[in-house]
Write a structure and sequence with these properties.
alpha/beta; TIM Barrel; Immunoglobulin-like; 3 domains; six-stranded mixed β-sheet; 18% strand; globular; binds alpha-D-glucopyranose
Length: 747
């Protein structure tokens, strides 16, 4: 059969109407880089490959809160060991948000000390700012990635990137370990919420938009900053659901689901990539030459530099038992393609790699290659030039950022059920509020918020509203709150139920406390029993229950959801999330979020929307509690008139598709129209449907709009039997809403 082989894995050419260009690898700075490289000693080169945690330069006694650097330790790092990168914030053992002023003092101290060094190579400071400038106090903290995905709004992701970069640079920080482009297809995984969900196209579009906003077309600009794609590759699919445990991915699975988002991020211009802390098919990410060099460099053409994840070179020895010594681990990782080591708490990498080069175990050419990449990025980030003043965003910029954050929170929340049109509530209603996530800002934000785990509630800004506080502010009738964590056993529940029964409606806030990484590992998607007992007591009142869930991943709520009158899936809507949820409950905002994941009906209900035919054949069914793309509005929408421009196209041709969407309800609202395809018969089993395009529109009651889409050969492609990306001739279907239209691809 004649097929079309697709050579480029770059799924996107335009996002938000602007062309996107891969990071070029510094053709315009190569002369400066080569000149500098030629002057460097082996020690200076390997120092550039060394990244240390802030703790290595932190004062531990007589700490000056306005500048917690220990000058002697800093000089040991920068002048004696020529260290090229620092990460994280002060407050050992884990980071904690600092004032902008403290950050500026730290950065200035680093710059002043660098100026004393022989070659004055600037330090590149890396920080996790995955939903805003996490470690800068009072930063704009957005909905987490899973929520940004639920907005299906790339413009918001772009604005999030721009605002995050601006606020990072105001703190003197140039390098953000974000976006995470691992695909979220394992609901147990403790970092699902850091992903853009289960779909490759959605994650690629939103990740690209974030990178564009964060970097602009010049990441040296005073309000732009570097991004870092993570965690390359296959990290998000641990077989048992637990973070940093083995994934078993065939190369077909890897190429179909896990590589495309990184290809999109590379195409969008990200200059750095952080590596998978786990292992795939028995090969740890940090020792995988095939992934790190054959695929990443030779196939995807990545020209920037790779950085290890936390202590993951050491882990090749102390955890994975792949290397017989730490020295061998350093050799393995550097030769596989790791350019910079996040060591992070000692000089072992520096010392061992110098020895390896001196003993001829690692060629200087490999060192030069890594250092060349690192220096090129530093030049392109403008680090060698005079640094612009670290200016705080203006009051107007802060106000605009707040408005955009509020909009993102609104658009990220999913109304999953609204029986009897209970919602929106009357503000005068007698409202009973309870549940473990009702009165916590940390439950709205999740990990990487002010601290690593995001669980220091006392450090959250007092002026931001929890769900309860927002309801109390907006309601005009009586609001009663019972802190469910104080309820003693049964009689406490009974008393709460008796109180709740005297109200018109119960707002039951369930879900998860914040977490990230292995600390968030769980062995079941079930909630803790106390939450089910509380739900049962609330439902026993016979009063209408609005279930509000918060947390980083779906938890099993089926029985509660079936008995609740309304269900609002909040996930992690960020600092404006409490207000946004109240706005939706009282109708100040008409919800429009859509699920970027399949919401499981039960703990082993692990079937995703783009499942294979056999998963919905005979007695098998895709029956999640709520499917991918599900989300209700207070109005109604209908799509109709699905049309393809041609019934058949030749291999390689594009196909125009059009469909009309209409607001058939009584309120203005936003609707995301999702366009799926199905390759009816192919040489590899094909998903029953795959998202290939989406558009979000705002329509007034009765208003309709004709939407146009263009399907490309890449959209119709898949990984063939020989692991090449191909398009095969044959029948295809394009599907929108309830409509499906066939078309053929001819030889
Ligand atoms: C962590 C995470 C990674 C983060 C890095 C630096 O272990 O895996 O996402 O960017 O360390 O904090």
């Amino acid at each position: 059969m004649q097929v079309q082989t697709i050579l480029s894995l770059f799924p996107l050419t335009l996002v938000l109407g602007c062309a996107i260009t891969p990071y070029s690898g510094g053709n315009d700075t190569s002369t400066q880089v080569e000149k500098l490289l030629s002057q460097m000693t082996l020690q200076e080169k390997i120092g550039q490959m060394t990244q240390l945690d802030f703790a290595m330069i932190a004062a531990t006694t007589h700490i000056n809160p306005n500048n917690p650097v220990d000058q002697a330790k800093l000089e040991d790092a920068l002048l004696n060991h020529h260290v090229g990168s620092i990460l994280n914030a002060p407050y050992t053992p884990y980071s904690k948000a600092q004032t902008r002023q403290t950050w500026q003092a730290i950065i200035k101290t680093l710059q002043a000390t660098t100026a004393k060094s022989r070659l004055k190579i600037p330090v590149l400071y890396g920080i996790d700012a995955i939903h805003g400038a996490t470690y800068t106090q009072n930063a704009t903290l957005f909905p987490q990635a899973i929520n940004m995905a639920a907005t299906f709004n790339p413009a918001l992701s772009n604005q999030e990137g721009a605002i995050t970069a601006k606020e990072l640079r105001a703190s003197g920080l140039h390098w953000n370990f974000s976006p995470m482009l691992d695909i979220g297809r394992q609901p147990l995984w403790s970092r699902l919420w850091e992903s853009y969900g289960e779909d490759v196209h959605l994650a690629s579009v939103l990740g690209t938009a974030f990178i564009q906003g964060h970097q602009g077309d010049n990441f040296a600009a005073p309000d732009k900053a570097l991004t870092c794609l993570k965690h390359y590759v296959g990290y998000s699919m641990p077989n048992n659901g637990k973070d940093r445990t083995p994934a078993w991915l065939s190369e077909r699975m890897l190429r179909e689901y896990f590589l495309p988002t990184f290809a999109a991020g590379i195409n969008a211009g990200a200059p750095t990539i952080m590596v998978n802390s786990g292992e795939v098919d028995g090969i740890p990410g940090h020792a995988n030459h095939h992934y790190l060099t054959d695929i990443l460099r030779d196939e995807l053409g990545f020209k920037g530099f790779t950085v290890s994840d936390w202590a993951d070179i050491k882990n090749l020895y102390r955890r994975d038992k792949l290397a017989a010594s730490e020295k061998e681990a350093v050799k393995m990782a550097v030769m596989a393609g790791i350019d910079m080591s996040m060591v992070p708490f000692d000089y072992s990498f520096y010392d061992l790699l110098i020895a390896l080069v001196q003993e001829g175990e690692v060629p200087i050419a490999r060192i030069d290659e890594a250092v060349r990449r690192i220096l090129t990025v530093k030049y392109q980030a403008g680090l060698f030039a005079a640094q612009p003043a670290m200016t705080a965003p203006s009051a107007q910029a802060d106000a605009e950022a707040l408005a955009i954050n509020r909009q993102a929170a609104h658009e990220s929340i999913v109304l999953a059920k609204n029986a009897t049109h209970l919602l929106p509530l009357k503000k005068s209603a007698r409202i009973f509020v309870t549940g473990p996530t009702a009165n916590l800002l940390s439950a709205l934000n999740g990990g990487w918020t002010i601290t690593w785990q995001g669980d220091d509630e006392s450090a959250y800004p007092a002026e931001k509203q929890t769900v309860l506080e927002a309801i109390q502010q907006q309601a005009t009738g009586p609001v009663t709150y019972v802190d469910s964590t104080t309820l003693a056993a049964n009689n406490g529940l009974q008393q709460a139920a008796a109180t709740a029964a005297k109200h018109d409606v119960i707002i039951l806030c369930l879900g998860e406390k914040p977490y990230t990484e292995t600390i968030g590992n769980i062995s079941s998607l079930n909630l803790d029993p106390a939450q089910y007992q509380l739900a049962k007591a609330m439902i026993s009142t016979g009063k209408p229950v609005v279930l509000v869930t918060l947390g980083g991943r779906p938890r099993i709520i089926t029985d509660i959801a079936q008995q609740a009158t309304a269900v609002v899936l909040g996930f992690l809507p960020g600092m404006e999330g409490g207000t946004a949820i109240a706005d939706i409950l009282f109708g100040a905002y008409n919800p429009d979020g859509k699920l970027p994941i399949s919401y499981p009906r039960d703990t082993n209900d692990h079937v995703l929307y783009d499942h294979k035919p056999s998963e919905a054949f005979e007695f098998n069914r895709y029956t999640p509690l709520y499917p991918f793309g599900h989300g209700l509005s207070y109005t109604e929408f209908q799509t109709s008139g699905l049309q393809v421009a041609k019934k058949s196209i030749l291999l390689g041709e594009t196909l125009d598709v059009a469909v009309t969407v209409k607001n058939t309800g009584s309120l203005t609202g936003k609707e995301t129209v999702l366009l799926y395809i199905n390759d009816v018969a192919a040489s590899v089993t094909r998903p029953t449907k795959q998202l290939k395009a989406f558009q979000k529109v705002s329509l007034a009651p009765g208003q309709s709009q004709r939407l146009s889409f263009t399907l490309t050969a890449l959209d119709l492609s898949f990984i063939g039997v020989d692991l090449k990306r191909i398009v095969e001739p044959g029948e295809f279907k394009v599907m929108v809403g309830k409509e499906s239209v066939a078309f053929w691809v001819e030889k």
